[in-house]
Amino acid sequence: MTGLPTRTGARTGPAGLRRFTAPRPPTEERCELCGARLAGAGHRHLADVDRRALACACGPCAQLMDHSAATRGRFRAVPDRVLADPAHRVDDVVWESLRIPVSVAFLFHNSALGRVVALYPSPAGATESEPEDLAWESVRDATRLADLLDPDVEALLMRRHQGRTECFLVPIDICYELVGRMRLHWQGFDGGAEARADLDAVFARVRGAAREAQGSRT
Prior knowledge:
alpha+beta, 7-stranded mixed beta sheet, 6 helices
């Protein structure tokens, strides 16, 4: 199970990102709900809302959580949709209002806290901050993706790069994979070439999977 940050300014410790930073254990991975053996690396994840963690799940358990999403129980299946908003207006002013000290961050609505949180990679893991209300409103005004987010299981992933901002709606586990990979390879003040290569690889994968958002969530 992968722990998530628990408070403003918190950083995940070594155990928190083990799923994405440590070598695969010799034992078989199993569903954390029913104990079934998980085949391969393509299994799904559940968001444990109470513990603010990610849990591995087999297909049937993930499907069960998909069908019970309306109950908003403890576990929620992480979906697989990736959306883009080519007309977004997340510019330097919007980015600076978030007060993120690095060039990449993700934002999601945390049900346990009842608010939107922003997280960004660092040498110690994911560092969490709380955007001001006006900053979040500026993001909502700049992209329709913000209002499409499913709480706890989807995030707005943004990167300021080469004078423009990339902005996608992604499954939350992609964000923690990104943080884990960067933490594993981080060197020096700015992360170094290997961490930047990981960042480029994740965004290339997201771009390839993204489809244009249509309408708004009801």
